[in-house]
TrEMBL record:
Keywords: ATP-binding, Leucine-rich repeat, Nucleotide-binding, Plant defense, Repeat
Top-level division of the source organism's lineage: Eukaryota
Domain Disease resistance N-terminal as annotated: residue spans: 15-83
Ranges where the NB-ARC domain occurs: 153-244
Residues covered by the Disease resistance protein winged helix domain: 313-388
Cross-referenced InterPro entries: Apaf_helical (IPR042197), LRR_dom_sf (IPR032675), LRR_R13L1-DRL21 (IPR056789), NB-ARC (IPR002182), P-loop_NTPase (IPR027417), Rx_N (IPR041118), WH-like_DNA-bd_sf (IPR036388), WHD_DRP (IPR058922)
Annotated GO MF terms: ADP binding; ATP binding
Domain R13L1/DRL21-like LRR repeat region stretches: 485-616
PANTHER family, per database record: NB-ARC DOMAIN-CONTAINING PROTEIN, PLANT BROAD-SPECTRUM MILDEW RESISTANCE PROTEIN RPW8
Protein name: Disease resistance RPP13-like protein 1
GO biological processes: defense response; response to other organism
């Protein structure tokens, strides 16, 4: 805010208007006074409701002031830009008219209103006792005074002498719990009296801050992980039930297990209240976890407090990306570029680097933790998320399933779970949230196509003029409304996975309208281009030239079929002297079939290059740029390329495919992908032996290559495709393995385990994919002892007769089981399937389907998705069969059932939780049950079912009324949602449809 008040645009705007300059000074003084008590208020709000309400009012006023100042500065900047095209008297008249008109619209009165509100809050702070000195219960004397008589406590030196005398020659164990001080000198002073103890004396330090641990450590740090749910339950039982026996209280066991599940591996929570009470409703003297989080939050610098609190916008368990979050922090103005002061010289750090530092500080303090499923993503523990929600109060609103409550006028940040069809009714809750700054749909990174109603774009988003962050990612949007230009506060617009590439820009005039040269505050730009070059396309590229202030550039050049040479003109008219690529981080050339030569200038031409990809350039010869900051190198299908790259210390990921002519030094690489390489240079074998720290290895289409697998005991991810030499795989070599894929290895027969009776042979394995291995005959004889296995795919294994034994107990965490085209598998293993199974997909397994009444799916309490696909010989005529599926099922997919003639009315009625249904390639299915489809359905897909599609045709088909209640419908190439339910055919009066129909993008 203080940066905003000092901005040149704002100062120039107010200069010469004495009254308004005094208002600006008054605003600044009020903010200075209130800022003095801000830290105190942030701590006291946790336990004092009145302080929390005061802080919310202050935050609301500051948001309003920031928006107003931003609007003034933006319009002032617009005046300046427009003035560049005017001169003389016209310029003066224009500026006077614009300034006057702005204040005619109430800017001055809005500023006065904000100042009055801040003034009232400044008076109220004294009533609340904010900023007054309070006694501190912690000091640098406290750890030592607790060990000796308090009479010595006033003299630190005397106290340490006394303590040294008490401990001299004695063996002791001291625990310093919950240490926060990061100053090494203070730690050194604290340790002075302890150096006289007997051999074997120990000091244990506990902390939630890794920086503290790194300062005090003399042995490796031991990070405490979450307790497994079973251990949590045992711990809970011992402290809750008499003699730890829950059998004596069977009516309480279910409640107890719900409490344990809620605590998510943190047994610090208050067991009696955590199930029914939100975290902030627990009194601090009863909640150890709240005290711990409050203390952690208290020790955060103010900018980290804001960064942490903003994360409450995410839904629980959402796996977020570090770069994505930093971009949002920057867009929202939470992070600012570091500036110099009297004590420190000017910082050269960028605002992104400042963001990385903030992120890692929160990570080191355990506010964030790495995702178990994806090491590149992060999550917040439920209780930490609850705490963040308490801090942000009404300013963050998460629209989650089942939420019906209204939205506060104070809300500034909005997120929602992205659905397949997001219509006006779902999002109308924010139509009047005129102060909204963030619009963030949160969706799965692996989900398919999704649609957003045009009515939302035209009638909701166009009116949210204070938006700073707007994401429309993953939606099938073909154009934006003209009203997007009214969002003058917008800092970040995410259109990823909507417009696919620049071919959608049809001419130079369209590109010129983007005015990239004028956007001097634009810091990051991604351009993708691929087509045969012609004059019009060159004009488009020329008109998309960004401002020179750009800090991050990603450039993709693909399918330029006429290009034979990338010469000096690529670097501009003056070659390397102009240094046009100082911001380039990612460079990708793809499918340039005639490209022969690349003119490489000096090594400094790409100083920030981190990712280089050259793909399918079959005639390219010569060398590659030698960037010292390169992290990822991908060379694919470049058989003529002959290049030598020295060791690059930053290199971590290397992908090579059909490029035998490369000479590389591989030390330090942790991820290696080798594709379609039959031989390498003579040093290849010795280089492979050096990769002892390799964590990821992917080998494809290398029939004769043999890898020294015994060297790679650190492997976490291993993948083989089209490797004829692979016949078996000894899993015992890889104790850290998390993911294993074996694809199209025609000679592969089995997986091996040395000690099949050992139940922890594969303690970390999470995913196992075996596909197109025609000669595979067996899994390990004793089953798969993989307690953390969540995904198992067994596909196109035509000789395999059985799935792993003891599936119900050995992989107890299995959530997804996919079995395709395994004609010899007759049944599931004895004992049935794991109770935690969520997804089951069976396709073309004739013998297995024959035993379907013995599967016991109705007993699986978590099964939510069932997919049943058949073959030409499948004789099934009706589905779902009554009583064979659990009522918990939320998604049913059926396909390739050539003889299916009807949907079982009673079978559907029993699926009272069903939300989505897909019907594919069932040509004999001609109609729906008279009662229609379940009212719980929100999604329906009908594909390659011509008779059924005709009957369900929108508004005209005989069965349309049976499906019209479903919010989202896809029928082949037609997408229908935001439509009005007409009611059954006997209802009186015509119905009006508001359907939106989009072509399905292929």
């Amino acid at each position: 805010m203080f940066d905003r008040l000092a901005s040149p645009e704002l100062m120039n705007f107010f200069r010469g208007r004495k009254h308004d300059e005094s208002l600006l000074d008054e605003l600044k003084l009020e903010l200075i006074e209130l800022n003095k008590v801000l830290n105190d208020a942030e701590v006291k709000q946790i336990t004092d409701r009145a302080v929390k309400e005061w802080l919310e009012e202050l935050t609301d006023a500051v948001y309003d002031a920031d928006d107003l100042l931003d609007e003034i500065a933006t319009k002032g900047l617009r005046c300046k830009v427009e003035a560049e095209y005017q001169s003389g008297l016209n310029l003066v008249r224009s500026l006077i008219w614009i300034v006057t008109s702005l204040f005619d619209y109430g800017v001055e009165s809005e500023l006065e209103k904000i100042i009055n509100k801040l003034g009232n809050l400044e008076k109220a702070k004294d009533v609340l006792g904010l900023g007054k000195e309070v006694g501190q219960n912690w000091s640098r004397r406290l750890p030592t005074t607790s060990l000796v008589d308090e009479s010595y406590a006033k003299d630190l030196e005397l106290l340490q002498v006394k303590l040294k005398g008490s401990l001299s020659g004695k063996k002791f164990l001291i625990v310093l719990d919950d240490v926060w001080n990061e100053n090494y000198d203070h730690w050194d002073i604290l340790m002075t009296p302890f150096g006289c103890g007997a051999h074997g004396s120990k000091i244990i330090v506990t902390t939630r801050n890794e920086s503290v641990a790194s300062i005090v450590q003399t042995v490796p740090i031991h990070g405490l992980k979450h307790l497994p749910e079973e251990d949590c339950w045992n711990f809970f039982s011992i402290h809750t039930f008499e003699k730890g026996d829950c059998n004596a209280y069977p009516h309480l066991e279910k409640v107890g297990k719900q409490i344990v599940r809620k605590c998510r591996g943190l047994p610090l929570a208050d067991w009696n209240n955590v199930l029914k009470s939100a975290l902030w409703e627990l009194p601090d003297e009863k909640s150890n976890i709240l005290l711990a989080l409050t203390l952690s939050y208290h020790h955060l610098p103010s900018h980290l407090k804001r960064c942490f609190a903003y994360c409450s916008i995410f839904i629980k368990d959402y796996e977020f990306d570090m770069k994505e979050l930093i971009s949002i922090w920057i867009a929202e103005g939470i992070l600012k570029k570091p500036k110099s002061n009297y004590e420190k010289p000017k910082s050269n750090k960028t605002v992104e680097e400042e963001g990385y530092e903030c992120f890692h500080q929160l990570l080191s303090r355990s506010f964030f933790q790495r995702s178990k499923a994806n090491n590149d993503l992060f999550v917040m523990h439920d209780l930490v998320h609850d705490f963040a929600q308490n801090v942000t109060g009404d300013f963050c609103y998460r629209l989650e399933d089942g939420m019906l409550n209204g939205i506060s006028e104070k809300v500034r940040h909005f997120s929602y779970v992205q659905g397949k069809f997001d219509g006006f009714d779902k999002l109308k809750v924010i139509k009047d949230a005129k102060c909204l700054r963030t619009f963030l749909p949160i969706g799965s990174r692996t989900s398919g196509k999704q649609w957003l109603s045009k009515k939302v774009l035209d009638e909701i988003l166009s009116g949210l003029t204070r938006l700073r962050f707007l994401s429309l990612a993953r939606y099938q949007i073909v154009e934006l409304p003209y009203s997007i230009g009214n969002l003058i506060h917008l800092r970040f617009l995410d259109l990823s996975d909507t417009l696919i590439s620049l071919q959608n820009v049809t001419g130079g005039s369209d590109a010129l309208e983007a005015k990239l040269r004028e956007k001097k505050h634009l810091e990051k730009l991604v351009l993708e281009w691929g087509s045969t070059t012609d004059d019009s396309q060159n004009k488009i590229l020329e008109n998309l030239e960004p401002h020179t202030n750009l800090k991050h550039l990603k450039l993709t050049i693909a399918r330029m079929l006429g290009t034979t040479n990338v010469g000096i003109e690529f670097y501009g008219e003056s070659g390397s002297l102009s240094k046009p690529f100082q911001s380039l981080e990612t460079l990708r050339f793809e499918e340039m079939s005639e490209w022969v030569d690349w003119c490489i200038l000096d090594a400094g031409v790409f100083p920030q290059l981190q990712k280089l990809e050259v793909i399918r350039c079959p005639k390219l010869i010569g060398d590659l740029p030698k960037g010292h900051s390169l992290v990822r190198l991908k060379i694919k299908e470049c058989p003529e390329l002959v290049a030598s790259l020295p060791r690059i210390t930053s290199m971590r990921e290397l992908v090579l495919q059909e490029c035998q002519g490369l000479l590389l030094e591989w030390q330090g690489i942790s991820s290696l992908e080798i594709v379609k390489i039959s031989s390498f240079a003579s040093n290849f074998a010795s280089e492979l032996l050096t990769l002892t720290n390799l964590k990821q290895l992917k080998v494809s289409w290398c029939p004769k290559l043999v890898f020294p697998l015994y060297c790679y005991t650190s492997l976490e991810r291993l993948s083989f495709s089209e490797c004829e030499s692979l016949k078996s795989l000894p899993l015992g070599l890889f104790p850290k393995l998390r993911s294993l894929e074996i694809n199209s290895c025609v000679n592969f027969e089995n997986l091996l385990l040395p000690n099949e009776i050992e139940l922890q042979n594969l303690p970390l394995l999470e995913t196992l994919y075996i596909r197109f291995c025609d000669n595979m005959v067996s899994f390990p004889g004793g089953g798969l002892p993989a307690p953390n296995l969540s995904d198992l795919w067994v596909c196109y294994c035509k000789k395999l007769k059985t799935l792993p034994k003891q599936m119900r107990t050995l992989p107890p965490s299995l959530q997804r089981l996919i079995v395709w085209i395994c004609p010899e598998i007759e049944s599931f293993p004895e004992g049935g399937l794991p109770s935690k199974l969520h997804v089951l997909w069976i396709w073309n397994c004739k013998k297995l389907v024959g035993s379907r009444r013995d599967w016991g799916l109705q007993t699986l309490p978590y099964l939510s998705t069932f997919t049943r696909e058949g073959e030409s010989e499948d004789v099934l005529e009706s589905i779902p069969e009554e009583g064979l599926l659990p009522s918990t099922l939320t998604k049913l997919e059926i396909g390739d059932l050539k003889n299916l003639k009807s949907l079982n009315k009673r079978g559907l009625e029993l699926l009272d939780s069903l939300e989505a249904m897909e019907i594919r390639n069932c040509p004999q299915l001609k109609s729906l049950p008279d009662e229609g489809l379940p009212t719980t359905l929100s999604e329906l897909l009908i594909e390659d079912c011509p008779s059924l599609k005709s009957r369900c045709r929108r508004e005209e088909g005989e069965d349309w009324y049976k499906v019209a209640h479903i919010p989202g419908i896809i029928m082949d190439d037609e997408v229908i949602f935001d439509h009005k339910y007409p009611g059954p055919p006997e209802s009186a009066g015509p119905s009006v449809s508001f359907s939106e129909v989009y072509p399905k993008f292929q």
